[in-house]
Structures are given as structure tokens and as C-alpha cells.
Amino acid sequence: MDFSLLLDPSILLELLAQGLVRGSMYALMAVGLSLIFGILNVVNFAHGELFMIGAYVMYFVVASLGFPILAGIAAAAVVLFVVGMLIERVLIDPLRRRSGRGWLLDAFVLTIGLTVVFQNLATELVGSRRQGLVEMIPGSLDIMGISLSYDRLVILAATLVVGAGVWLFVRYTPLGKAIRATGQDAEAARALGISVRQIYMITFGIGASLAGISGALLITIFPAYPTVGMLPAMKSFAVVVLGGLGNLPGAIVGGFLLGIIEAFAVFFLAAGWQHVLTAALVVLVLVIRPQGLFAVQGARP
Amino acid sequence: MSLTISGLTAGYTREVPILSGVNLRAEEGMVTTIIGPNGAGKSTLLRAVFGYLKPASGTVEHFGRTVTGLEPEQMLTEGVAYLIQGRSVFPSMTVAENLELGCWTIRRDRRRVLDALARAYEQYPRMAEKRNARAGSLSGGEQRMLEIARITMTNPRTLLLDEPSVGLMPSLVEEVYQQIGALKKAGYLILLVDQNIRKALQIADYVYVLKMGANSHHGPAAEFKHRLADIIKEWI
């Protein structure tokens, strides 16, 4: 370990850039996870598989069909929105009607099952070969002695735009307010004529769509293969703990924070240490500040 | 014009009906209260009327239209609003957002929403003052006031009130009943269930007594006021 390297601004900047890109993935994944948990009270273990499907959609639309990058990202967003709504209506909704006090565990187990199904389906349908793109937009931006590829900038910018978009949507539109109301008190929301079933379906669709966008955006770093979603899913769980369950801005900040911490850890410590560090951080937060680092009292999405 | 319930049977499971063949008629501009021992099915009756649980048999008619088994959303469109039991404000949303959510079924009619908001603020100046405060930061009495204001946003004709005074201290109970009195004067049809039988009987015009999910007695409130002690004794 040579911490004097930290004094070198180009290394510092490079690590920061790496961390922000990695953090983009964590942030978008965590926002979806947090939204689904905050509103539906479902811990979606299959979130990584939604990321995986997004990566495949991106690959097929761009590499196989030859459409532009933006079309690939949009397709991933739309496909996963529909897949998410189907999962909610066909599997989770019937479970909700039957499940009582064991809901949290029942739903969790259901999504674990989904993970297995999706991973094996992917293996059967497209094989386990890695299918990725070398780059989305060629070229790079040279500033302060480091070179930032346009891809990284796109990932970062897209994450910020999508993250801010979701936040504004949930905060200011009537549908967004109905979503938050349902998360706070579903019974009361229903009394005002809000169709809680529809809200649940749409919310799961949005969360899934974010995972899909994330999978599509990161195609140059994480090529599509059946189990590609496992790492991002694990990390986004960590981010949700850091940011506070159901706290959307917390998920975004937490995502970038974890990304940066890991980038520095990888550089200064042996490669395996980043995961140890992440896990230790999660345990520490759970012990010291279980409501999350950025929790505001009583804040839910 | 009235709300007429005929032979209503409903329950949470098919095997055990909580209500069996309940009949009730509530008139516009009057407060009709349902009293009865714990577990008589008073709240369940309101829930069955509003569509929270589907009646197994029987009919509900509202102002001449059959509304049996409709979803809450449709009941609101039919002019029936429901104050659910217990706290129901959305605590981390503002007073204004809570009132806007009361306009959910009319949200596409921007004009009506704005009118409803203006009317609510005029009627409840305290809500206007605190429109940007989080609902969770209001006092218990203010939250109740917000909940009641919120169910009148769509201009309903009928209000189903489930335990409006529960959990409030006596001075606030008084305030809530003044509010209900004002709603009565405004011409709403009010169907009221409240553990505070004394207050409910004071404001009521007509009384139904439920026992074990079925009709027991009914009659004008005046008849019940001096028989109250006997009736309650009968329950024990």
C-alpha cells in the first residue's frame, strides 16, 4: 500500500471516475430495489436477473439488430417495465391475497425462485457465453491528465438523469404521489379511490425498468451472461442498507459512495478486499445506524 | 334520497359471515348511527358497503342506483366517501398533498380539483395555514380534521364515518363532533359508527342496533336516549 499515490491528482481523478461509473450501476439498481421495497414491501432478490435481461436486450437490439445505442437502452427500459408488471400481477399479486403475517418471507422466497428460473432460462435460451459490446460511443475526453471515455460519461450522465427523473416523478406528479401514499398506508389510499393493485404493478414495473436500464448502460463493462446480475444485486442490497430502506435519494448517494469506496479499495488493497470492505461497511451501518446513513426521521418514498 | 341496505350478508371468509341479512335505511341530511356491542359487525357493515369486502348476498342502493359490490373507486364516483378507522393521513406528505390525494378520482378535472382545494382551505383555515407542513407533524385533532376534510374533496353526498372519535382526548372529541354537525347541516347523508355512543346518539337522527351481525332494534334517536342504559345492560 502506497498512500502517497493519493497525492497524484491524475490517479485520484481516475479512481474517482472509476468509482462514479461503478456507483452509477449500484445507484440505479438500488433506487429500483428501494422503491419496490418501500412501496410493495417486497425484498426483490431477483433484481439482478432484471439487470441481466436488460443487458441481453441491449445486446440483441444493438449488436444483433444494429439499432443505435439509445434504442437499446429504451428497449431495455420498456421490456423490463412490462416484465416487471407481469411478475407483479401474475406472481406477487396472487401471493399477496393469500399470504398473511409471513408476507415478507413469502415474497422473498418467491423472488429467490425467480432468480433460479431466470438464470436457467437464460442459459437454455442463449447459452452461457458472454455477449457484450466493446464500446457504445468511441472516443474519450482528455482532462487533467486522465482520459475519460465517452462511455463512462454516458453512463454517469444517464444515471443522474434517470435517477433525478424518478425522484421528480415520485415527488411531484399525481401518480407519483399516489405511489408514495400507497407505500405509507395502502388501506387509506384505497379509501380515496386509489387502485392499490395497479399502483403495486406500476411500481414494480418502474423498479424493474431501472434495473434493465442499468444492465443496458453497463454492457461495455459487464457483458450479458446468465449470472451477470448477481454481483450488482448483492451490491445494491448493500447500498440500500447504507442509504436507508425506501429512501430514494439515499440510494443514489449511497450507490456513488459505495462505488468510490470500492474503486479506492481495489487500487490500494488486494482485489478480494473490496467485497470484504463492502460487507464490513454494511454490518457496521446495521449496528450503528440501522435506519441508514441518510435517513430523515419518518421519511419514506 | 337515501342509502338502502337490504339483506346484506358478508364476511372475511365464505364460511363465517360476520353480517347476516342486515337491513338499514339512511336518509339524506340526517345522521344515522349504528350501535351495538363489540364484534356486532358495525365497522364490517361500512366496509362491505364501501367495497372493502364483497357481499355474499343482499343489495346496497344509493340515491336510487344499485351499488352492491362496487370497488371503492367506483363508490366515490357514485358519491359515497369513507373515513376509515384509525389514523389515515399520509404522515410524510404535506397537508396540501393529502388534500390533493383526496381528489384522486377527479384528478383529470383540474378545475374541480382547484375548486375543491380552495373550498377546503376556506372551510378549514387551520389547514390553509399548515398546508405545507407534513401531515405527521400535526396534532391528533388536526390530523382528524384533515382526514375528514380529505373525504369531502370529491363533493360526495354520503359519508361513511368509522370511529371518528377513537383515540382522541375529550376536548378533541367535542371538536370532531362539531365538525360532523357542520357536515350534517351542509346536507350530507351520514352513516356513523362510534364507540362513543353518547356523542353518537346526541348528533344522530336515527339509530340502528346491531347484534351478532344482525338487526336488533331501530328507531328515531330520541327514543333511544332514555333507553340507552337498558340497551347497554342487555349487551353485557
Explain what the structure shows:
The complex is a heterodimer of chains A (301) and B (236). By secondary structure, chain A is mostly helical. Chain A has a domain at 27-229. Chain A has eleven helices and two strands; from the N terminus they run ααααββααααααα. Chain A has helices at 9-40, 47-64, 69-98, 103-126, 150-172, 174-184, 186-191, 196-217, 230-243, 248-268, 273-288; strands at residues 140-143, 146-149. A two-stranded antiparallel ribbon of chain A has the order 1-2. In chain A, α2 (47-64) runs antiparallel to α3 and α5 crosses α6. Mean pLDDT of chain A is 90; it is low at 297-301. By secondary structure, chain B is of the alpha/beta class. Chain B is 38% helix and 25% strand. Chain B has a six-stranded mixed beta sheet with strand order 6-7-8-3-9-10, sandwiched between helices. A four-stranded antiparallel beta sheet of chain B has the order 2-1-4-5. In chain B, α3 packs parallel to α6. The mean pLDDT of chain B is 92. The A-B interface holds A 174, 177-178, 180-181, 184-185, 187-195, 298-300 and B 50, 52, 71-73, 75-77, 82-84, 88-93, 97, 100-102, 104-105, 107, 134, 136, 150-151, 154. Chain A: It is found in: Cell membrane. Chain A: The chain crosses the membrane at residues 20-43, 50-67, 73-91, 103-122, 153-170, 199-225, 237-258, 265-288. Chain A: Keywords: Amino-acid transport, Cell membrane, Membrane, Transmembrane, Transmembrane helix, Transport. Chain A: It is a multi-pass membrane protein. Chain A: Its main location: membrane.
**Extended strand count of chain A:** 2
Q: What are the segments of chain B in which pLDDT stays under 50 over at least 5 consecutive residues? A: none
Question: Roughly what is the average pLDDT of chain B, rounded to an integer?
Answer: 92
One letter per element, helices H and strands E, the order of chain B comes to: EEEHEEHEHHHHEHEHEEHH
Tell how many strands the DSSP assignment of chain B holds. Answer: 10
Give the termini separation of chain A: 41 Å
The neighbouring-strand order within the major sheet of chain A is: 1-2
Oligomer designation: heterodimer
Q: Provide the gyration radius of chain B in Å.
A: 18 Å
Helix segment tally of chain B: 10
